[in-house]
Amino acid sequence: MKYDSIWVSAPGKLTVVTKELPEPKLDEVVVRVRACGVCGTDLHFYHDQPTGTLTPLGHEVAGTIHATGKGVRSLKVGTDVVVQNHVACGRCDACLNQRPDACLDIQTYMNDQGGMGAYLVVPQAMVVPFSGLSYEEATLAEPVTVALDLCREAQIRLHDDVLVMGPGTIGLACVALAKAQGARRVVVVGHGSQSVRGRHRVETARRLGADDVFDSSEEFWKAAVKLAYPRGFDRVIVTSPPQTIVDGIELAGFRGWIVYDGISFTDDEVRFHANDFHFAKKRLIASHAIPNWGFPMALDLLRDKTIPPDALLTHIYSLEDLGVALQLYGSSEVEIIKPVISIGG
Fold it and tell me: How far, in Å, CA of 199 to CA of 201, rounded?
């Protein structure tokens, strides 16, 4: 049986790739993809195509078990699942020393498959059953796991003041998580809050618990933050572009921690004053939630509405309209946070 998926063939160009669906091997499952979220990474791939080669799209996947290979006993055909895009191998020294986060042989399906298509063939270790959410809502589990990793690395303490930079899907999830972890005040910095998109994200940030929101497109925004919070922040979570890490370092207080997650394929160079950083005893920590962890927790947080899915999931498109979704994702004139592609019936 043949199936289609959508790949980037050149910057700004999508191509349908048709493949033969293979039979699942030992310990593998075939997942019929029902929905796939559009991520900022997909947007980078679409606009920049950094590899210069045919690039698959989609890694926020929810679907159903279509077929199982030998050795798969706990997963039945028809089971609703989300798909982790990276898992630890379970065999290397790091894994055997109970450090799967430092796995030396991370497993992924993203080399020759993508979630923007009808099927995925993956190891059974990559799938997590779920219930109580729609397929579209369940795709949010993947970005929520990224937010979980940011907050874990930040080690938010009771009564901390937390600054979240970037009110996208992950940053907004961090707002809700920081509040749930006992933060005293959560402040958000976003860019262009006077636009249609910006105003909606400000409203959503406040809905999720933000105490204050600042607009980094205003000329003296940092001075305004420092005036309102002269002692700085105990924890700064940066989900905005890498260049904004410098602002996060500046706004962190004495012994403040700055945790960031983000990429740029065009400009990732960051410069800051080491002496100021050193004498203020600050810490800069990278968060990169690969291999994936936290999917069961993320699904629970979405189900119990600690992170309400309807706050983040703003648009649903068909697979045929993926190009439209990618174009609108960056628009300032649309109330968009997370677009999701609905695939098949």
Answer: 5
